[in-house]
Amino acid sequence: MIFLTLLIFETADGVSIWRRINSDTHQDGITIDLISNCEISANLEGNVMLRSLFKGINYNIKGLGMGLKTPKLLLLGTIRFVAVVIITTAAAGFILVYHQEILNLIWNRPDSHWLLWLWYTLSWLLSAALVGLSAILSYLLSQILFSVLIMDMMSRITEKSITGHVQVPSGVPIWQQFLFLIRQEIPRATIPVMLTLVLIFIGWLTPFGPVVTVVSSAIAVIFLAWDNTDLIPARRMKSFGERFQELKRTLPFHMGFGLLFLIPLLNILFLSFAPVGATLYYIDKSNV
Description:
The chain has helices spanning 34-69, 71-97, 99-106, 113-163, 174-205, 209-229, 231-235, 240-249, 251-259, 266-287; strands at residues 2-5, 9-10, 16-17, 20-26, 29-32. The protein is mostly helical and 288 residues long.
């Protein structure tokens, strides 16, 4: 009986697992049970991914708890929530008030009674579509111009509370740091929204609607989670490519962190305080 010790297997979390394979010696050489080896590898990778997913859920809940108990974080989280609601409501209200004028730009009211019912149907379908689009655009606008500043402030407060200081590039004025954050928020906020809209459109045109819905939801929550975990790296002015590579290495964690954003009503609460949990995660990861 010969025992062969193989290479270290590096997982996404950097966990080193030593594996030994039991090999039998036969007349024609050494036989290695490759099937068992593959099963062991698959089980180990599955366990690591599952742990990362639950870790993401745990950090989101921890962040909410800390945010609700810390007065400054509670105030900022509430302001962020109210700002998004006000901007979205104002944009949707504008669409509903002027939906008649908007429709007339596309199709004037027909004189034929046979076409009038179609005109009314399209009128309200257009209004519903424009309200949905206004909600998306309002979220992007508030996120890029307003919420990203509040998110960074929440992240700074959390980092200082845990480590005693906020690590930023030396010699860079604070206004330049905020300008850099706003520039970084544009791709972070627009890419997931555009991908989700494209997938939804594909779902309408193909029989794969349920599958597309699951995939689009997964993409949305991953990028929403990354929008928060990326605050510290962006504040330290790391390149977009470097930060995106880090996202790809930690997809299970971001999926777990973002799963709570799919819970109706509660998702707004978790989104409002997500920068806290994301900052706790990054600090703990950096200290490992």
